[in-house]
Amino acid sequence: MSLFLIALRNFTRHKIRTGIAVVSIGVAVAVLFTMLSFNQGYENSLRNHIQKMGIHLMVIPIGCPYEAASLILKGGQIDNYLPYSIVNDVQQISGIQIAAPVLMHGIVKPDEGRTDIYMGVDENIVKLKNWWRIKGEFLREEHDVVLGYDVSLIELSNVGDQIYLPELDFTFNVVGVLEATGTEDDGFFYIPLSTSQQLFDKKDLLTSVQIRLDDPSLASTVTRTLEKIPQVEVITMSELLGTMLSLVGSMQTIVLSIVIIVLVIAGFGVLNTILMSVFERIKELAIMIATGAGRFHVFALVWIESMMLALIGGTMGLILAAVADRLLEGLLRRFMPLAPAGEIITFRIDIFLFCILLTLVIGLIAGIYPALIAARQKPVKVLRAV
Amino acid sequence: MKLLLIIITSLCVWRFPDRDIKEIYDADSYETIFYDVSEKDQAIIEEILGYPLDVDETQFKFFTVFNGSDTVGTVATHLGKGQYGAIEVVVAMFYDNDPNKIKIKEVRIQRDREKDRVNLRGDAFLGQFKGKGIDDPLTVPDDITPASEHSEKSSKAIAFAVRKLVVVYHYMVSK
Hints:
By secondary structure, chain A is an alpha+beta fold.
């Protein structure tokens, strides 16, 4: 009988104990696999999402952009705006393909638990976001509005309808509706820049200038030139990506640390299970040695048991993770306001193999001590004690 | 797009349940009841209404309101299209044992973008629904006077929402 079969048979002696060890390692590996898959999936998804925005750089007034965004979402007034004249300065810089001025304003609807975001834009926004598909047409007149896809659903409005702004006593004509983009663009009301400046009392002011470059590799050169303009700050999309990833990264570090602790504990569980098994079979192992089995064979038997235990647990954990990840993704989206569109937990074969390898290593390490104990038994001493 | 638009119409939330049940019924709790509408039910309801239900209206949600252990009424909500955007209507009903005696206790607008919102939300318009029942057609302008001459479309949308909820509820509890 091969060592593998003997090892497998030994598991069935104490089903509950073996089961607990398998479950503990399985859960730990499942969590690790999910964490690593999330890490990779989230980064890819976020990168795609930001690339899809079609923007390479964003010029904003000096200050914290995240605080400004938060204030706008809450309908608050931000302290700094850009002068409209900056658009000409920006457009003259070599390497800039499109510069789209934007004035963003939020109107809070406390009774509805939401904020209507109005984006004052001009025709450059359509050039910048050339992947937009608009049902109807883009803004031409003062009272025109293009609705984001989600907005059109919330307001039950379509091309040809009118939208009234009770807060400012202004009526818009819906001239276009964006087809679903799967991005935050779906949640905005797009109105002419001049209308937004007039309506929200921000004459000749902007909240940002969104820029596409001729060549994305020019980002740092253009950024340096843009930063020479007084009172402006430039955000590159890679910075934005980095900031968002680092926000999520801090949380992941904590969770990953906990997973490592759980893995170590699971490893001790395997060690304990195998050690108990060795102590219970001490006479059996001594007889094996006495009847001619080499100490290496006994060592290998116990070591294989340890590895198999870890491997079974790990495999079950990976199956569990693969099944539960779709559910988990839905759950994560509920609690992650920054979750981008697309799969944020992706199944990758390299992560799968890494987890299997790690499981084997845990089994190997956890099995060394019990295997040494088993191999060092002196048959005469053991059998005399019986 | 059209299908999604229709699906959203059924996702009308009741925004201020605690406030509404306190103000309308002086009640303290409510329970959500779901009524599934079969094809047969749908055909009968549509015949009574004289208008088809939305594609997704295969289930209706009503809220039974309690004061202590006593049932004091039922509330339902509806999201429809007004003249300048969506209108969310809350309909509070009550009846004493006999479902044929369902009466409207109050109608409220919980979301709208209407230019004439003052009149549409005012008691002169919404008050017309009070005491009306299953036998009232709630048609504008015959049975219900529009909130103003400029808001006939929105007035019709509100009246239709109220009529639909009363008809569906009456049919479901009395069948």
